[in-house]
Write a structure and sequence with these properties.
- With 186 residues, this protein is α/β, with parallel strands linked by helices.
- The protein has one domain: Rossmann fold.
- It is 28% helix and 29% strand.
- It starts with a helix and ends with a strand.
- Bound molecules: 1-O-pyrophosphono-5-O-phosphono-alpha-D-ribofuranose and hypoxanthine.
- It catalyses: GMP + diphosphate = guanine + 5-phospho-alpha-D-ribose 1-diphosphate; IMP + diphosphate = hypoxanthine + 5-phospho-alpha-D-ribose 1-diphosphate.
- This is Hypoxanthine-guanine phosphoribosyltransferase.
Length: 186
């Protein structure tokens, strides 16, 4: 990346609107962990992180889930470091065995929801006994893949803007941003 483009990346961060601070996100993750524990602590689930965006929320959730589970990952992408979605590309399907067991899919954001619907359908077809989804962010708009689509566990709802931080990227950058930020003008 040239210096000019890196300057744009820095400017995006400086001009962004902070929607939720890291303290607010922390609290939301605590609530998610409580709800997940109440539902799944006796179920021996397999927890799949959806790479790349699910990296931060999965890590932060896992240390709050104090019960037996197996943690693994899958890699599917739809936005490919741009700000609009395309068809889902599977880079790594779920590799850990889960037939006959409940599966929890953890991702950063449910935007239009095509990603989660496709991943959850795949896990059902491959024999999961139940499939749950946990997302840090649910974006409010009427473009969901299915009307009324919701994850079983949701951290925070946001307005219809392009956001980054806590695993979510702007052109591949700022997954490491310590809060939920909205890009100026998007
Ligand atoms: O609800 P949807 O409209 O389908 O979008 C949500 C998906 O988009 C992002 O992934 P992306 O394809 O950008 O890949 P990434 O995880 O590598 O950022 C995000 O991490 C979700 O997986
Ligand atoms: O608003 C978003 N930000 C980052 N990644 C995303 N993937 C879907 N929607 C978004």
């Amino acid at each position: 990346m040239t210096q000019v483009e890196l300057d744009e990346i820095k400017q995006i961060y400086q001009e962004a609107d902070l929607l939720f601070s890291s303290e607010q996100v922390d609290q939301a993750i605590n609530h998610m962990a409580e709800a997940i524990s109440a539902s799944l602590s006796e179920q021996n689930p397999v927890v799949f992180c959806v790479m790349n965006g699910g990296l931060v929320i999965t890590g932060q959730l896992l240390t709050r889930l104090n019960f037996p589970l197996e943690a693994s990952y899958l890699h599917a992408t739809r936005y490919r470091n741009t700000t609009s979605g395309h068809s889902l590309e599977w880079k790594v399907p779920p590799m850990s065995a889960f037939r006959g067991r409940p599966v929890l899919i953890v991702d950063d954001i449910l935007d239009e929801g095509h990603t989660l619907v496709e991943i959850m359908d795949h896990c059902r077809r491959e024999g999961a006994s139940a499939v749950y989804a946990a997302v840090l962010i649910d974006k409010r708009h009427d473009r969901k893949a299915q009307p009324g689509l919701k994850a079983e566990f949701t951290g925070l709802e946001i307005e219809d803007r392009y956001i980054f931080g806590y695993g979510m990227d702007y052109k591949g950058y700022w997954r490491n941003a310590p809060g939920i930020f909205a890009v100026k003008g998007l």
